[in-house]
Amino acid sequence: MTDGEQHAAPRPKRADARRNAETLLDAAAAVFVASGVDAPVRDIAAAAGVGTATIYRHFPTRADLIVAVYRHQVEACAEAGPALLAEAPTAHEALRRWMDLFVDFLATKHGLAAVLQSDDPGFAPLHAYFLDRLVPVCTELLGAAAGAGEIRSDITAYELMRGAGNLCIGAEDNPRYDARRLVGLLVTGLGAPN
């Protein structure tokens, strides 16, 4: 083997392999929300339509799967921001739709919260990753809506995201508590004063 062959970059995943991994991560996130992160791997495999060996091949430990689910959810939320700005009728509406996705992400995150706060060193960088990826997206959405005169301009992305996060606390334990509705009211309340 030549020196160049030893240091060759890994080949990117084929499109079907990426789709399969995304399906598996989406299924794992849904199972984690419904049953907790200790749900049996066979339940995740059934939801994804794969065998348990497939999950273990991609994610040898539960911690590997949890980190991958968390990162996948963050990426989906981050990628949605620019797409929503391009397709929504107003920037304020794009912000509202993104906040709905953010609340959905927080529901998954709260399901992972106890595990993410464990002593496992693999979980330590995830909060910084979350902020690094999502604060700029929320900042862009807020800036577009404020620039269009649709919302007030005196709130930061961090404040809005923190407020939404606080409104989501306890929602998973109370079926009468609708965090998405409350966050929607918060976003509506950002409307520019007349």
From TrEMBL:
Residues 40-59 bind DNA. Residues 18-77 form the HTH tetR-type domain. SUPFAM superfamilies: Homeodomain-like, Tetracyclin repressor-like, C-terminal domain. Transmembrane segments: none annotated. Gene3D superfamilies: Tetracycline Repressor, domain 2. It holds the Pfam family TetR_N. Keywords: DNA-binding, Transcription, Transcription regulation. This is TetR/AcrR family transcriptional regulator. The keyword Repressor does not apply.
